[in-house]
Amino acid sequence: MKIKDLPCEERPRERLLKIGIENISNEELLAIILKTGSYGVSVKEMAGQILSKIKSLNNLDKININTFQDIKGLGKVKTIEIMASIELGKRIFLECTEKSNIIYNNPDIIFKNNRYLFYEKKQEYFYCLYLDNKNKLIERKLLFMGTINRSIVHPREIFKEAYLSSASGIICMHNHPSGDIHPSMEDIHLTKSLIEIGKLQGINIIDHMIISDNQYYSFYNNQKDLFL
Length: 228
Description:
This protein is an alpha+beta fold. It is 40% helix and 14% strand. The protein has two domains: 3-97; 102-227, Cytidine Deaminase, domain 2 (3-Layer(aba) Sandwich). The radius of gyration is 22 Å and the shape is elongated. The chain starts with 11 loop residues before the first helix and ends in a 6-residue tail after the last helix.
């Protein structure tokens, strides 16, 4: 059945206006994002097929351009619209998190609030958190993306962003796509170098963390002598 064939009070947009966005179903929310179905498939049916395929809303953030290629009528354009909506939601959540005045003073807090940045990534991502003198977030920056097993990191770029944001401290974070959170010799050399440069520049490297989906390695926790 097409949306236009439904009684007005059963159409997703009309139900949103009548009972409020927080009270409509996941299928209806997705149908509103998709806007239209395709020949022989209503937008509500399409939304239902998507939810059936991913099995859990938690899996929506794992989708890519080819995830729904077997769902009739759901081409690249509609998949991109879904991906854009998910990314917008993430950014809203991130902005709310940043405004909550979190104090980044231990690795558990850092991991909890930033792990999603690295979830199921297939190449290395290197982020820096730039903090004020109370360890509150000023800015979060993705500085480098590498290949599946290597990331080229330039200290000058890390500290340049610190100057631009007037940061007092920096927390570096990156992932190992293999899932192994133990630091490589390259990670150790980089951390030592950044700490020494930070001492000279008066900008502390507070920690360098290697993050996977479910665990992390903190240089500060495990190699505290580097920071002395």
